[in-house]
Amino acid sequence: MEINGVEIEDTFAEAFDIKVSRVLVTAATKKLAKIAATEATGYGTSVIGCSAEAGIDSYIPPGESPDGRPGYTIMICNPTKKGLDHELLERIGMGILTAPTTAVFDALEDPDEKLNVGFKLKFFGDGYEKDLEIAGRKIHSIPIMSGDFLIESDLGIKDGVAGGNFFILGDSQGSALLAAQAAVDAISAVEGVITPFPGGVVASGSKVGSNKYKFLDASTNEKMCVTLKDEVEGSQIPADVNGVYEIVIDGVDEEAVKEATRAGIEAACKVPGVKKISAGNYGGKLGAYQIKLHELF
């Protein structure tokens, strides 16, 4: 199978279950909302080493937000309900409550349940907090130096999908990188997904465990390293490929991840120099979801 002359390997991306929350961060200006959203989703690339996988989902214009201000939806993901509750408290409390003019609203459709994150954060008000209602939502108003910080009392969580992925193989590092950036731009238009790695692009694809160091949970994927293609037995790098990047996608459900994968691959295949699209899996041993590339088109 080919798209614009680019080979799409007959393989699948192996994804796994994760707990997901999606919240809306609003502020007086788009810039201030973006700053707060960025702070709250920092250090959130992979649960291999980070306490959560997190990222910015989409921009919400003033006319579509509960308080009539610009904002960004963000997603925060953790393997457990307890872990996600902790991450929401810390990331909102330290990354958003501390930012100028911000407010936080639940933005998850059809949640499995809700966590009383806003209720817990209201105690920062030290007894001066108040309850109010905005657009039918129960809101806690917490007095801070610059005014009041507003947060919805309960934030929804649900079982989402993490680890959707695909590899972009290019004839050079430059072509592969341009294609990866084009893929991330296309994916950003899909609601309900994030690409949690820096700029949405994974430079250091990994495998589970290690061939040599038993204390490692993950190590470099040597079969996909371009500088090792002539050294490693079973290298998956063709002779004409000199650059590889991976896109990792987390979503509120499997369909959102599939839609994002399709959009990203289509965009990547429009970039000159891209030779092949593949995906990472562990033979079905890692996760319950198999996103088969050929079935996306």
Summarize the entry for a quick read.
Keywords: Acyltransferase, Cytoplasm, Methanogenesis, One-carbon metabolism, Transferase. About 20% of the residues lie in helices and about 35% in strands.
What does this structure look like?
- The chain has 297 residues and is of the alpha+beta class.
- It has two domains: 2-14 and 161-296, 2-Layer Sandwich (Alpha-Beta Plaits), CATH 3.30.70.520; 18-158, 2-Layer Sandwich (Alpha-Beta Plaits), CATH 3.30.70.520.
- It is built from five helices and 17 strands.
- It has helices spanning 30-40, 81-95, 117-121, 173-187, 254-268; strands at 2-3, 6-8, 12-26, 53-60, 71-78, 103-106, 113-115, 130-134, 137-144, 147-152, 155-170, 193-194, 206-208, 218-220, 243-251, 274-278, 289-292.
- It has a 15-stranded mixed β-sheet that branches. A two-stranded antiparallel ribbon has the order 13-14.
- A hairpin with a 2-residue loop joins strand 1 and strand 2 (6-8).
- The model has no long low-confidence stretch (mean pLDDT 96).
- It comes from Methanothermobacter tenebrarum.
Helix amount, in percent?
A: 10-25%
What is the distance, rounded to the nearest whole angstrom, between the alpha carbons of the first and last residues?
A: 10 Å
When the domains are counted, the total is 2
Determine the mean pLDDT. 96
Strand content: 35-45%
Query: Could you tell me the number of beta strands?
Result: 17
